[in-house]
Design a protein that fits this description.
Elements lengths: L1 E6 L3 H13 L4 E7 L3 H8 L5 E3 L2 H8 L3 E4 L6 H10 L3 E4 L7 H10 L7 E3 L7 H9 L6 E11 L13 H4 L3 H17 L2 E9 L10 E8 L4 E7 L1 E13 L3 E6 L8 E3 L14 H14 L7 H20 L3 E2 L8 H4 L16
Helix pairs in contact: 1-9, 4-5, 8-10
Pfam family, one: GFO_IDH_MocA_C3
InterPro entries: Gfo/Idh/MocA-like_OxRdtase_N, Gfo/Idh/MocA_Oxidoreductase, GFO_IDH_MocA-like_dom, NAD(P)-bd_dom_sf
GO molecular function: nucleotide binding
Length: 352
């Protein structure tokens, strides 16, 4: 049995990570929960028999887990992930895994050549529909156009949580917190980007970061995309459209999909199984990789791609100019902070 520990006993751990562990209880067992609120950690541990800790380092030293699931606020991820890797544990971290590319690269440096590894929770790319789309490859023709829309709604109550809506605790706004799921799926299909032109702003929510962003993107393969992310949309939807030379493939859902949420003009469209885009599905693939001793999906350069994309989007929005992927290097201020150190771009009060 793989021995797992959860760090952070909040809603995402209770609603997604614990059920995912239960779905694979023939292979993995929860042995510890760590949270600064030990009562909350105890509640999450429930009747599982998992030990409860108030401090992550103490838990790592005492339990030596094989796998650590990080479910804390974003500004805590990098330190906790590196501590877990240095203790010999694999890590599965909620997005955004870090506040910047610089932090992500520090985590990668803490990985071993043969593990342990960190994998990011990007469950949207692992449903059977997305897997089938990637497996079809060139059978649909050359990739041409994509639409990537995350039009969600988050009210003032959502941002009443102290760490939300702040550059220093979340890294950015809806782009990196919500839209990144659909962006990661898009990138897994169309590949690396070359150039991005973006705008972003805080239109309505009482926060420091953006509540809307929009981008136009060119990919290495010549394809182009339009990307829209919002937390101001009363009718919520996650929408992806991929236009290839010979077919269109579309996905409409909200926070997760099954095969019925996909449509295509191609007679080749016929996913052989119906796996949801869930934490359960991605965790299964992570456990497979652990058992084989192989790097898991959504780790290393594979997971870095989405963080690099949102970095380019923020850089373009703040500077007001096109940004090329090869510009996002350690001497670029946006490599170190998604706001490039000029967060004043969003300091004006929203228009009433």
């Amino acid at each position: 049995m793989i021995r797992a520990a959860i760090v952070g006993a909040g809603a995402i751990a209770a609603h997604s990570h614990v059920p995912a562990l239960r779905a694979h209880d023939d292979r993995v067992r929860l042995v510890a929960v760590a949270d600064v609120d030990e009562a909350r950690a105890g509640s999450l541990a429930g009747a599982s028999g998992a030990a409860v800790y108030g401090e992550t380092g103490e838990m790592l030293a005492a339990e030596r887990p094989d796998l650590v699931l990080i479910c804390t606020p974003p500004h805590l991820h990098a330190g906790q992930a590196i501590a877990a890797l240095e203790a010999g544990a694999w890590v599965w971290c909620e997005k955004p895994a870090t506040l910047s590319l610089a932090e992500y690269d520090r985590i990668q440096a803490a990985e071993g050549a043969a593990g342990p590894y960190l994998s990011v929770v990007y469950q949207q790319r692992f449903g059977s529909g997305a897997t089938h789309l990637r497996e079809l490859g060139g059978a649909l023709g050359r990739p041409l156009v994509a639409l990537c829309q995350t039009t969600w709604h988050r009210g003032d109550d959502y941002y009443a949580v102290p760490y939300r809506g702040k550059w220093h605790t979340e890294g950015g706004g809806t782009t990196v917190l919500h839209g990144v799921h659909q962006m990661d799926l898009m990138l897994s299909v169309f590949g690396d980007w070359t150039e991005i032109r973006a705008i972003a702003g805080r239109l309505d929510r009482p926060i420091e970061t953006e509540d809307v962003s929009m981008a136009m993107v060119r990919f290495d393969n010549g394809a182009m995309a339009s990307v829209v992310t919002s937390v101001l949309s009363p009718r919520q939807e996650s929408y992806l459209r991929f236009d290839f030379a010979d077919a269109t493939v579309e996905l409409r859902h909200l926070h997760g999909y099954r095969n019925a949420d996909w449509t295509s003009t191609s007679p080749l469209w016929n996913p052989p199984e119906d796996l949801p885009s869930s934490h359960d599905t991605q965790l299964g693939l992570l456990l497979d990789a652990y058992e084989r001793g192989e790097r898991p999906p959504a780790s290393g350069a594979d997971a870095r791609r989405a963080m690099e994309f949102v970095t380019g989007l923020y850089a373009s929005a703040f500077t007001g100019r096109p940004v090329r992927r090869d510009e996002i290097t350690p001497d670029n201020p946006f490599y170190h902070r998604l706001d490039g150190g000029i967060e004043s771009f969003f300091t004006a009060e929203p228009t009433s």
